[in-house]
Amino acid sequence: MSSIINILPFEVISMIIDIIAKQDTRTNTKNTKRKFKSLKACSLTCQALLPLCRAYIFHSIEFHDSSNPTGRSGTPRFIKLINTTPEIAQYIRELRYGMRCDEEFPLLASALDHITKLQSLAIYFKGITGDWRSMDATTRSSLLRVMHLPTVVCLDLKNIARFAMDELIPCINLKRLYLEYFRLVEGDKISSEVEMNPPTKPIHLQKLHLAYCTMLSILAMLEQKWADGRPVLDLQELKEVYLDLPNVAQLEISYAGDVTSAVKILSYTRHLKTMEFTVSTNSVDAVSAVSLISPCLTTLKTLSLVINHNSVDSPSNPYLAGDEWKELEYVLTSPGWSSLHQVDLYIVALRSADIANQMKTLPNTQFPGLSSTFLALLSSEF
Fold it and tell me: InterPro entries given for it (predicted)?
């Protein structure tokens, strides 16, 4: 029996596999056991189809140390998969690893060392913030080797404390950076060893996502310069930024440096086009926060303001009925937003018929200027 590779051109076969992969993804997005079921079947029919199918099946891998309901951790299975079939590692483009502070896997480092073409890496401690410096040194070294691959353009770090600035500096090809509950070593600066051998170029980000306790760390990197005056981190090419900030009225008790640091961070941008700004607060504090950052956003075209307000006053929520919303509109329609053409406002609140009814009147009663000038999308999420 002739192989399919001798019957159809390779380009046609590749297109067929691509269609099957897309269909598998659409039909089995939530069932991981059935994900790529058709592709897995195809991979067993012909040796020539195996690499084409593997490119989709192993494109994205997520594993973690925590046990699932069956009592099995994903990390040993990942180690076994890669160490017994190392050629699979060349297909991995996206990797997500959830760590636990109280578990170590000595063979994980050897499995990670097979990965050479990664494009996106996410590392996070499960549940609580973990100490990066206290984890197994061999595993940490292997994770850093993967992180520093020249192919990595996206990095996501979450629930990690005491990360060293020197460990981020080699990621010179990063374009997208996501940080949440992330902190550098306190008072950290570039080591003399790294200063003697600086990278050929700074990190030029195009997309930045910062949430909770991350502003001070990024600001510290922005303020670092090499001996020749070049920046370590350059935001002049930044196009998108997503900031999840604390309640401005409660700065004394929570994340005190985040808002003021965010203002300084945005001052380093030159071509910012899109911003999503989330506050867990009422509209009065939202006005204050937007007022703080507005001078930095003369190039902004799209602003999404997400207000998390999960408390309801009976019989109705005064924050949806008072004049505070008019203050917000005044800020957003004031001079200085010369490029702004779209404002999306999302209010996340507890489910309430009163709030739902009040929400319907907001465009006409509280935002007549925004509705007419920016065709603003006012949306409620319950």
Answer: LRR_dom_sf
